[in-house]
Design a protein that fits this description.
Blueprint lengths: L8 E3 L8 H7 L10 H17 L4 E6 L2 H12 L5 E6 L2 H12 L3 E6 L8 H10 L5 E7 L1 E2 L4 E2 L2 H11 L4 E5 L18 E5 L10 E6 L1 H5 L11 H4 L5 H5 L5 H17 L1 H22 L6 E2 L11 E5 L4 H13 L1 E5 L9 E5 L6 H17 L8 H10 L2
Parallel strand pairs: 1-13, 3-4, 3-5, 5-8, 8-9
Antiparallel strand pairs: 2-10, 6-7, 9-10, 11-12, 12-14, 13-14
Helix pairs in contact: 1-10, 2-10, 5-6, 10-11, 11-13, 11-14, 12-13, 13-14
This protein binds pyridoxal-5'-phosphate.
Length: 391
C-alpha cells in the first residue's frame, strides 16, 4: 500500500516550498506593465533585496534561473582572455567555472573535493603565486548545494587583503540567501549572485546580481545589452530592468516572499534555519552510529543551514529516496554531481519550513530505513525532538 496521498513535501534544495501567500499573489490577471502598481512594486523590491544581502550597493534583476545570474555576473567583469580562480567545494562552483570557460575565460581551479570547505592557506598560496596579478576574479560558492558545505567568504577577503591581491571577490549565494547569514559589504564581497526559488520562496524564474562600485569600475569594455547590470539596476529605466516584458507574476510573488521575511525578521529567519539544521544533524548523528549513513560534512561549523547532504552507501540513497516518495509523499534531493550518485541524497530545509515539517522528514526517513532494512543507530527521532524542545 502507499501512504503518499495527501499533501506532498518537496524537501529538495530548490525549488523550495512555496508559501500559499506567494502563490495566491501570483494568481491574478496580467497587470499593466507600462505604468502604475507594477512599477512601484518593482522599485520596492530593491531596498529589500539589498537588506537581505546586507549591502548598500547595487542590485540588478534578471529573468532567468541561477545559471542566468552566473552568466550575467561573469559577463560584466570578465572577457575572453581574462583569468579567474575557482574555489571548488562541490558541483556548483565547478559549474560556474565551466560557464566562465565557455566565455573564453582561462579558469584556474583549486578543488577541495566533495566533503570539505575551502582551505584558506591553499588559497593564499595560489594568490601569492600570481605575481603578475592575472587573476581578475575569485569565484566561490557560499553554500555548495551538492555537498552542503558552507564556506568562509569573509576569510577569502581577509586573505585577498593580506596578500594585497586586487582580484574581485565573487560569491554564489543561490542556496544560502535568506537561510544562512551573509554580509556582502562587511565581508568585502564585490559581486554576489542569487535566485528566487530557494530561500526566497518564489517559483523559479528570476535571479539577481548584487555588485559594488569597485566591481562596476572593473567592468569590461563590452557587455551584452541583455546582461548589462547598469541598465538593470537603474530605477529610471523600468523596461531595462528586464530587457523586455517584466516577469509580472514573479514580481508579485517575490514581493510577498520578501514581506514574509521582513515580518518574521531576517535574524529570526536565520535562527529558525540554524535550529532546523541542528535538528536534522542530531538525527543523522544518531543514525550514523551504526550502518552506512553519514553526514557529508563532518565539521558542524562548515555545514549549511539550508541543505544537508548524506552519504548512504550505494544504492541506498536512491532506494531511500524512492521509498520516501512512493510510500510517504516525501521527495528528497538526488546525489547531484556525486559518484556513485545513488549513494547520496540531500534534504532541502530552506525557506518556508518549520519544526513539524522537519520532524516529518526525519520520521519518514526513519520509516524508510526500517522498511528497507538499512542499518542505523537508534534514538535519532528523540535526539531531533530534544533540539526542537530546547528552541
Ligand atoms: C541551485 C543552485 C544553482 C543553480 O541555480 P538554477 O536556478 O538551478 O540555475 C547554482 N548555485 C547554487 C549554489 C545553487 O544552489
Amino acid at each position: 500500500m502507499s501512504l503518499a496521498n495527501g499533501r506532498g513535501y518537496l524537501a529538495i534544495p530548490g525549488p523550495s516550498v512555496m508559501p500559499e501567500a506567494v502563490l495566491r499573489q501570483m494568481h491574478r490577471a496580467s497587470p499593466n506593465i507600462y505604468e502604475g502598481e507594477l512599477h512601484a512594486l518593482t522599485d520596492s523590491l530593491v531596498p529589500d533585496l539589498k537588506a537581505i544581502a546586507k549591502t548598500d550597493q547595487n542590485v540588478a534583476i534578471y529573468i532567468g534561473n541561477g545559471h542566468a545570474a552566473w552568466e550575467a555576473a561573469l559577463s560584466n567583469v570578465v572577457a575572453a582572455g581574462d583569468t579567474v580562480l575557482v574555489l571548488a567545494t562541490g558541483r556548483f562552483c565547478i559549474g560556474w567555472g565551466e560557464m566562465a570557460a565557455d566565455l573564453g575565460v582561462t579558469v584556474q581551479t583549486i578543488d577541495y573535493g566533495d566533503s570539505a570547505a575551502i582551505d584558506l592557506s591553499q588559497f593564499e598560496e595560489a594568490l601569492s603565486a600570481d605575481k603578475s596579478g592575472k587573476i581578475k576574479a575569485v569565484l566561490a560558492v557560499h553554500v555548495d548545494t551538492s555537498t552542503s558545505v558552507k564556506n568562509d567568504i569573509a576569510g577569502l577577503r581577509r586573505v585577498l587583503d593580506d596578500v594585497g591581491h586586487g582580484a574581485l571577490l565573487m560569491a554564489d549565494c543561490i542556496a544560502s540567501l535568506g537561510c544562512d547569514n551573509f554580509e556582502m559589504d562587511a565581508w568585502g564581497v564585490d559581486v554576489m549572485v542569487s535566485a528566487c526559488q530557494k530561500g526566497l520562496m518564489t517559483p523559479a524564474g528570476i535571479s539577481f546580481v548584487w555588485f559594488n562600485n569597485r566591481a562596476d569600475a572593473a567592468r569590461v569594455a563590452r557587455v551584452s545589452r541583455y546582461w548589462d547590470w547598469r541598465a538593470r539596476s537603474d530605477p529610471d529605466y523600468f523596461f531595462q530592468y528586464f530587457g523586455g516584458t517584466a516577469p509580472t507574476h514573479h514580481l508579485y510573488g517575490l514581493r510577498t516572499a520578501l514581506d514574509l521575511i521582513k515580518d518574521e525578521g531576517l535574524e529570526a529567519v536565520f535562527a529558525r534555519h540554524a535550529k532546523l539544521a541542528q535538528t536534522v544533524w542530531a538525527a543523522f548523528e544518531c543514525w550514523s552510529q551504526e550502518g552506512p549513513l553519514s553526514l557529508n560534512i563532518a565539521d558542524p561549523l562548515t555545514r549549511s543551514h539550508a541543505v544537508t547532504a548524506i552519504s548512504a552507501g550505494s544504492p541506498n540513497g536512491d532506494l531511500l529516496r524512492r521509498w520516501c516518495e512512493e510510500k510517504a509523499g516525501l521527495t528528497l534531493g538526488i546525489g547531484l554531481g556525486r559518484t556513485p550518485a545513488d549513494a547520496f541524497f540531500r534534504i532541502g530545509h530552506m525557506g518556508h519550513v518549520n519544526a513539524h515539517m522537519i520532524m516529518g522528514v526525519l520520521g519518514t526517513i526513519q520509516a524508510g530505513l526500517t522498511a528497507l532494512d538499512i542499518g542505523h543507530g537508534k534514538g535519532a527521532l528523540d535526539a531531533a525532538a530534544r533540539v526542537i524542545a530546547t528552541a
